[in-house]
Amino acid sequence: SYELTQPLSVSVALGQTARLTCGGKNIGNKNVHWYQQKPGQAPVLVISRDSSRPSGIPERFSGSNSGNTATLTISRAQAGDEADYYCQVWDTNIAVFGGGTKLTVL
Amino acid sequence: QVQLVQSGAEVRKPGASVKVSCKVSGYTFTRYEINWVRQATGQGLEWMGWMNPNSGNPGYAQKFQGRVTMTRNASIGTVYMELGSLRSDDTAVYYCARGYNGMDVWGQGTAVTVSS
User: Among A37, A95, A99, whose Cβ lies nearest the Cβ of B47?
Assistant: First the structure.
């Protein structure tokens, strides 16, 4: 079965750029979706299909996908960006989530 | 506005079953797939399966095959997820979520506790 690998945690200084990675075999051939989840809340879609931002998501959130790694980039990180982030792909009609990355804003 | 509203928290004993509902509003029910995703406390997101509301055809993750049943009532815009033979490690928050190209709308979650 297809697997997605995310670092357990990433730290970023306030106002700096955070890059969260999601590794998978030839993931560049798949559409990657990213979700933000804050404690006690349902996940929120922040990037769909590698790099599309849903309505209401700040331009500070961007995505890219190539080769074996997809990346969610959060520019000018704010305290409110502190959350868990999950990547997700579809593999033969099965949804696969990465294990999630906890982003800490210092 | 687009909403997915789930049924309330449930407590079950091991071996029992639970049925969670997800009522959609604000869009055409048959246009988007509905996924079911669960999350145990402190753990990540786990996809259980999905339902095509138009055809009524479900698709299940292999892990849950034989234990989960997803159905829908199109007349009231509601999708259901029933999980049987419950075990303590089924204790989790269960979410419904809309869509294939990114799950763009999520229900509020339903806490299911399995305890003797």
Answer: A95
Alpha carbon A52 to chain centroid, angstroms: 12
What's the pLDDT at B98?
Answer: 97
CA distances from A34 to A28, A29, A83, B10, B67 (A): 14, 16, 12, 29, 29
pLDDT digits 0-9 by tens, B64-78:
999 999 999 999 999
Closest CA to B21 of B115, B114, B113, B109: B109
Q: Which residues of A touch B100 (CB under 8 A)?
A: 90
pLDDT attached to residue B76: 95
Q: Please tell me the predicted confidence (pLDDT) of residue A38.
A: 98
Cβ–Cβ under 8 Å, residues A34 and A63 = yes
From the list A78, A32, A38, A86, the residue with the least C-alpha distance to A58 is: A78
Best mutation site among A4, A6, A8, A88 for testing chain B: the one with the most B CBs within 10 Å?
A88
DSSP H stretches of helix in chain B: none
Q: What percent of chain B has pLDDT over 70?
A: 100
Quote the tokens at residue B31: 């246009």
Q: What is the pLDDT of residues A68-89, one digit of tens each?
A: 999 999 999 999 999 999 999 9
Yes or no, beta carbons of A97 and B97 under 8 Å apart: no
CB-nearest to B103 from A45, A52, A100 is A45
